[in-house]
Amino acid sequence: MIAKHVPMRSLGKSDFAGLVNYVTDAQSKDHRLGQVQITNCDAVSVQDAITEVLATQHTNTRAKGDKTYHLIVSFRAGEQPSADTLRAIEERICAGLGYGEHQRVSAVHNDTDNLHIHIAINKIHPTRNTMHEPYYSHRALAELCTTLEHDYGLERDNHEPRQRGAEGRAADMERHAGVESLVGWIKRECLDEIKGAQSWQELHQVMRDNGLELRERANGLVIEAGDGTMVKASTLARDLSKPKLEARLGPFEASPERHTRTKAKRQYQKDPIRLRVNTVELYARYKAQQQTLTATRGQALEQARRRKDRLVEAAKRSGRLRRATIKVIGENGANKKLLYAQASKALRDEIQAINKQYQQDRQALYESHSRRTWADWLKKEATHGNAEALTALRAREAAQGLKGNTIQGRGDPRPGHAPVTDNITKKGTIIFRAGLTAVRDDGDKLQVSREATREGLQEALRLAMERYGSRITVNGTTQFQAQIIRAAVDSQLPITFADPALESRRLALLKKENTHERPDRTERADQRPAEHRGRAGRGAGGPGQRTAAHDDAARPVAIARAGIGRPGRGRADAAGVHAGAVHRKPDIGRIGRVPPPQSQHRLRTLSQLGVVRIAGGSEVLLPRDVPRHLEQQGTQPDHQLRRGISRPGTGVAAAPPGLTAADKYIAEREAKRSKGFDIPKHARYTAGDGALAFQGVRNIEGQALALLKRGDEVMVMPIDQATARRLSRIAVGEAVTITPKGSIKTSKGRSR
C-alpha cells in the first residue's frame, strides 16, 4: 500500500469542487466508481457537501496557501480489501495526518490495475477555522502505511521514495507517458562514461559524443540535449554536482567547442521506452496524428460553427415568417401583442438550445482532438479495437500480469459472444462487464473482483474457455476455488480443471447433482401405510368429488400423493389418476432426481393446464387442447393453483421475469442513489392516488420497463415490446393513467 499527497501547482487549481467532481465521476464506466463516503459534513449528497466545504473555506480569509489536500491511497495489484477495511484505512490515515475532524469526501476507483482511494480534504477546520498543514507528510504516510499493512494483512510495499525531485518526476513520466526521459536515457546510455572522465576536456568530449552539452547555470551545472531538454547534473548522481566535480577536476572549464557542431555517436530523442515488441510503425502514426491534430481540430470546429450558423438562420427565418403571419391575421391589439411575445420567446428558446448544443459539440471535439501522450494514445487506439496498440500496452515493463484470484485457460479457444468492454488500462488490462462483476483480462489470464456474483463467475469461466481454452487453471484463495467449482457445475460448461483435486471435486459434485438421492422421498407406494395408499388411490377428477381447485386445505395432500405436485417425482402407476389427466412431460426423470432450475418451486403439470367452466358441472382440469364446443378456447395457466414451496436450503417460488427485471433495475438505481447521486427513489408500480408522468422506457435483459413518475418517486412497470414501441412516441413528462386492466392510457385518450 502506498499513500501519496498530490500538491496543486498553482492556487488557481486548488478547487475543492473540481476535485470532488472528478473523483466522483463514473466517466460512463460501470466499474470505475466504487464506494463514495462523506465525512464530518451535515450534507447527505455530494453537491451539498461541496457547498458546505466551500462555505467553510471562505470563513478563513487570512490563509494564502492551498486550502485543499488531495491524497491518494493505492494498493498492490491484485489486492481487493473489503469495503469496511477501506473505510477503516481512510479514517486512520486522515487521523494520522491530523485531519480526523476535517471535512472530506473520498471515493474508491476500480478502473486501473491498482485499486486506489482518492481523498479530498478541507484543510480548514470546521469549527476553529484554522488551516492545518501536516509536517513532513511523506514520513508520516510511510509510517502509517507500514502499520496498516501489518494490522490488515496487506502485502508489504516500499514506502521510502527511491527517487527524489526531478529524478522521481522523470520516472513518473516514463511510467505514465511511455516516453523515454533525458534522465533515464543518460543513465542507460552514458552515465558510466561521464563518471569515468578524469579531466574537464575528457568530460566535454564524452558529452559531445552523446549529443550533450555541459554548461554553467546559476550556481550549478546543467546538461542540455540537442532538442533543448535540460537536467541538473546533480540529478543524475551526487558525484556530478559542481562542488564535487571541482573538488575532483579543479575549477570549472567551459567547453572550447561549444558553438561548433560535431557528429555524435548517439543522441537523445523523445522516443518510446523499449518494449518487447516493435512499435516503430505505431509511433510514426502517433507522431503524424499529433502534427496534424491542430489543423484537423480547426476544421472540425469550423464545420460545427457553420452548422450552428445555419440552424440559427433557419430559426430566425421561421420567426420572421411567424411574425408576418401574426401581422396579417385579423386580431385585436391585445391578442397580437400576446402572439408577438410568444413568437419572440419561442425564437429565443430555440436559439438558446442551438447554442447549448454547439457548446457541447465544441467540448466533444476538444476532447477527441486533444493532445495525448504515447501511452494514452495507445490506450485510446486499443479501446477502438487496435490489436497492435493493445499488444504494445501489454509489452510495457510495468505490465507484470494479474495476481490474486485468477483463472487461466489452455487448449483450443472457442470464440463466442463478444463481452462488453468497460475500460482498458495503460498496462493493457481489459475490464469486462459481467453483470455486477468486473472481470479483468491481461491477455494470459482473467481476474475476478472480490464481490463477484455467481453469474459473474460463470461469465468469467465462459470467457476463459472462449478466449484461451477449456483446460482451466485456478489460482487464489480456497473460498474462490470452491466458488469456481460451484459455478462450473451450475453453468454445465465443457471444461476441465488442470488441478486433479479440483477436477475430482467438480466431477463428484456434478455426479451428485445428476443422481442425487433423497432417502425421505424414495419410499415405494406399497411400503406406505394403508391409509396413505387408500388416500392416494382416490380419483382426482371423477364426478361429485372435490378437486384441488375446490379444496385448498386438501390440495397439498391430494396433489403430492397423486404424484404430480412435485416435479420429477410423479409415479406412472398412481392409483385413481387417469392417463389423459396427467400427460407425460419431457425430462421428468426418475424418483429422487433434482428438477431442472426452471422447474423449481412450481407445479410442473398443473401450471400448464386450463380451467374451463361447463354448464351444469364443476370445474375440471384439461391436460391438452380444449375442444371447439367448449365455452373458452385454448389452455391458460391457472395461477390460483400455484403456491410457494419452502424447503430447507431453498426459497419461495421465483418471481415472473418482468418483475425480476424491474427489481434488478430498481436495485441498481437505489444503489447509486445511496452513494449520493441525484436520483429519485425507484419502486415497483402500485395502484394509488396521484398523477402519473411518463419518464421513458428501459430494457433490462430483454424485458421492457416503463418508468412512471408519481410525485417524487419513479414507479417501474414491466411491459411487452409492442407497448414499448408505442410508448417511444410519447414525450417524456406527458401525463398518463393506468387502466384497471393494466394498460397505459395517454392524455389523448389512447391506451397503450
Automatic annotation (TrEMBL):
Region of interest (Disordered), residue spans: 510-554, 562-581, 631-657
Domain TraI-like middle: start-end pairs: 167-254
Residue ranges annotated for the TraI-like C-terminal domain, each copy included: 661-745
Record domain MobA/VirD2-like nuclease: where: 22-154
Segments forming domain Large polyvalent protein-associated: 419-507
Protein's name in the database: TraI
Organism of provenance: Hydrogenophaga intermedia
Originating gene: traI_2
Basic and acidic residues bias: start-end ranges: 510-534
